[in-house]
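Here is one chain, start to finish.
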Amino acid sequence: MATHDYDLIVIGAGSGGVRASRISASFGAKVAIVEKDRLGGTCVIRGCVPKKLLVYGASFAHEAVDAEGFGWQIEGLMHNWGALISAKDAEISRLEGIYRKLLENAGVDLIEGKGIIIGPNEVLVNGKTLTAERILIAVGGVPSILNTKGMAENAITSNEALDLKELPEKIIIQGGGYIALEFAGIFASLGSDTHLIFRSEFPLRGFDDDVRAHIANCLTDRGVKLHPNTSITKVEKNSDKLSVSLDNNEMIDANQLLAATGRQPNTASLGLDKIGVKMGDVGQILVSENGQTSVPSIFAIGDVTDRVTLTPVAIGEGHAFADTFYGNNQRIMSHELIASAVFSQPPIACVGITEKQAIDRNISVLIFESKFKAMKNTISGRAEQSYMKLVVEHETDKVIGAHMVGPDCAEIMQGIAIAMKMGATKSDFDATVGIHPTAAEEFVTMRTPRV
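Its structure:
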């Protein structure tokens, strides 16, 4: 039998890679993990966690306004952007330390440097070749910037947006996905003149159409200036401002331009093409159900496969990989009924399929929905409404889609996801007593289907 330096080398110390490495090591495997940047990956360092902290910080602006309706008198309200960024940085450093400790306690060798795969069992790091029985790629994704004149030279991505030294007086955000909406809410809430430019009629392509229309209204009401059906044609820098030309012949000047037009798998410099690992059109690694690539000893998990690009999915795939190959428990991560959330303001959460997806699959469905002003808003004076929707398969009575826009929707949707994973029917929802007074009770009190 061939001997190797390690049983497993993981490339990428993000959430998925760290989970796979430490669980594999707990089963007795000799494991090394290679990372060229900070530990924690996209989610912890430059994604979900720091962005959610900024969302929390920004949301207090609305809370302060709403508080007046409840008798609070707040004078001299102001925000210190630098203080928020410093607090965010301190928390990220704390979490990075936790990740480092997890690896150390699990007995995983941390190798800091860039990993390049030079053979089915070989990884080149810092000029040294390491070998392993298996190699697991968990390098995630990177922001993509459209090939528009002046865009690459002048735009920032979500990476830089989290570390701006000053809050921009005016910012243009290009994109209609969840990253664009989340940053639009952050900057608009904190006082930036915020413009959101996207190519479709409504933001969030792929989400339920009623949710998309509802959030568009909410964003407008919260001060975000929407530019639907619009693209950027050119970006020029003039003194300390950027001049952004649109395809409707308008021009907008701003302090910052954030390109939030999606992410792509981070595979460009791994050397995969030279060793025969098959990839898709956008650089994603093509894998089987258990993450195996076209090279049998090489596996991939998480965003780099472009299957379901969510941190908990990468973690689940990493854990399933470790269980299967080192824990004597062969299993595959299920990609069905995965709940997700957009931490826009207001937030969005969903699980299951949309109404359109059901129609496209020739599934006969009943639609139940509720649109209402939350109790808090009746006194605060905020006109914003929450929206809830259930997609129910007519033949089986199963709830196959749940969607919500409104406060606490992510917390509510987690419980809905458990019920749907267990096969809950609309009758089960109807038989459940709601908690009153809450928004969540609307999910169990919708009785009449939409005509």
